[in-house]
Write a structure and sequence with these properties.
Length: about 70
Amino acid sequence: MRYVVIFEKTATGYSAYVPDLPGCVTTGPNLPDTEALIKDAISFHLDGMREDGIPIPPPTTAASYITAA
């Protein structure tokens, strides 16, 4: 499954979260590290849901860039 990940610049690096997986978040010092960390966080989150018998939600969030006038 492909989930949308939102990356945000912070004062100390980056944060990332997955809107379709509440609680699946991470932070990192730079964008490449944060991307690697969120991939691990998604796997860990989904494994935990499976172990707990919680249904895995399908991806429903969409994202795109809009150019403002």
